[in-house]
Design goal:
By secondary structure, this protein is of the alpha+beta class. It folds into two domains: 46 residues; 136 residues, Roll (Nuclear Transport Factor 2, Chain: A), CATH 3.10.450.230.
Length: 204
């Protein structure tokens, strides 16, 4: 009889150990599943998909501070592209200048008004002149806020009889603003001024 009781107690202890082992294994499996699920969630959030030309392209998300120089240069490049890319069409001029003025403060509007008062845009239209710009380089100083920059570019004015190239040098400052459809980089150009805008030796 005592042997039987001892067998029952031994079996009960074994069952307890088995149950404890099962609970422990289940807990470890649950914790592992939660960890891998959280890791997968973080990896999924670290990727951004951009729709370009009907195709979904994967981009890796990063802190803005890692991309500030890249975004700042592109903002400056976009502003100069819109401000100086002009065709002998009033609507094209107004559209491009309008896009440029979203990226800069009153200093850009002041330069636009000065050019308008000097009939610069009317002369482009009446002379059937197309103007484009190629940004050669951008010097960006990130040590102090707002960020100072200097832009070196080449303007190309196409006439029916000739093509004129001009060296353009401008400078200004960048400050942070909210992002929007009209200002995707979240910068605003301040105190923008033209340092040089002269013909080059490559005119023909």
């Amino acid at each position: 009889m005592f042997t039987h009781l001892r067998n029952i107690e031994t079996a009960f202890q074994q069952n307890k150990r088995i149950v404890a082992l099962v609970i422990l294994c289940s807990s470890l499996i649950s914790l592992a599943a939660m960890y891998f699920a959280f890791s997968a969630y973080q990896k999924a959030n670290a990727h951004v998909y951009v729709l370009a030309n009907g195709k979904a392209l994967e981009a890796i998300a990063a802190d803005r501070k890692d991309n500030i120089p890249v975004e700042a240069r592109d903002h400056i490049k976009m502003f100069h592209h819109y401000f100086f890319t002009l065709d002998p069409d009033e609507k094209v001029i107004e559209s491009n200048i309008g896009k440029a003025l979203y990226l800069a403060d009153e200093s850009a509007r002041s330069q636009y008004n000065n050019l308008k008062e000097k009939s610069y845009y009317n002369n482009l239209i009446s002379g059937n002149i197309s103007q484009s710009i190629a940004v050669d380089s951008i010097q960006l100083i990130m040590d102090k806020y707002p960020y100072a920059f200097k832009c070196y570019a080449t303007e190309k004015l196409i006439r029916s009889t000739s093509t004129i190239y001009k060296l353009l040098i401008t400078q200004g400052y960048l400050r942070n603003v909210g992002r929007s459809d009209n200002n995707p980089h979240g910068f605003l150009i301040e105190r923008w001024e033209t340092l040089a805008n002269r013909d080059t030796i490559f005119n023909k």
